[in-house]
Design goal:
The protein is an alpha+beta fold. 40% of the residues lie in helices and 22% in strands. It has three helices and six strands; from the N terminus they run H-H-E-E-E-E-H-E-E. The protein has a six-stranded mixed beta sheet. The chain starts with a helix and ends with a strand.
Amino acid sequence: MNKQQIITQITNYLSSELTLAINAASTAHSDATDDQSVAETQYDTLAIEASYLAEGQSKRVQEYQEALKAYQQLNLPNFDQNTPIGLAALVQLSKDQACKSWFFIGPFAGGFRCKIDDQLITVITPASPMGQALKDKYQDDDIEIQLGYEKLADYICSVK
């Protein structure tokens, strides 16, 4: 499996989300500065609400830009049984072998899923519970993670 294909899918997703965020920020900014938004009474808060929305949308734009930049600059090392798991690792747990599922540890876009060569890839970040459980582990190591009320016990069967 080619990690560059995964990066391409992630950056395509982030680019489309960035476009949506830019359009939403532009619309919110226009609404905040529109003549129709001027307060008519002291209780009229439409302009204030629109400006808060515009600020939030602008922050989303910055976050997507940061995420895209991080993926464009991401080093894609090869991992094996002697390499500790870290950023850009592709990891499969033993219970995920049958369904051909993998975790890709990325700097952003946790939760994003894609399918490449009949393999299901789920992006996780190092800050996520699963990312923390996998960090600095090696192939064939056991992991144990508390997910809500359930405890997941498994072992790492493959690292790329």
